[in-house]
Amino acid sequence: MAALTATAQVELISLGSTKHPRSCALTILPVVSWRMNAAAKLLASMRRSQLDWQIGDLQTVARQNGIDWRHQKSSHCVFIRDDGRTLSVPAHRPIKPIYVRKFVELIDGA
User: Fold this and answer.
1) Chain segment 13-32, per-residue pLDDT in tens
2) What is this structure's pTM?
3) CA distance 20 to 26
4) Structural domain that includes position 11
5) Distances in whole angstroms, Cα of residue 39 to Cα of each of 42, 72, 92
6) pLDDT tens per residue, range 29-44
7) Which residues, other chains included, contact 109 with Cβ-Cβ below 8 Å and sequence gap of 6+?
8) Which residues, at least 6 apart from 23, have a Cβ–Cβ distance to it below 8 Å?
9) 13 and 61: one domain?
10) 44/71 same-domain check
């Protein structure tokens, strides 16, 4: 079998394959498991489709990404980034796609 990198050897072993070279010294790398939390999944979904979002979804993503927001007895929710940039989003359901696009831009820092 051709020489394999340590990562490829670990992948072969983790898949239960018997095709790994038994005579090679193996360096096992720590497995880093990155799980997407709910806010990261919401943001990924917002990037794919800007339709049918509610203000609570935007607030969840904002909270996870360190963006403050205020929404008290008004028809708009205002998202405030640390550098002072703001975005006012009408709190009507569903939120129009243009506001979701602008919100994703605010999160990305554009």
Assistant:
1) 444 545 555 555 556 655 54
2) 0.66
3) 10
4) 1-33
5) 5, 22, 21
6) 555 445 678 899 999 9
7) 81
8) none
9) no
10) yes
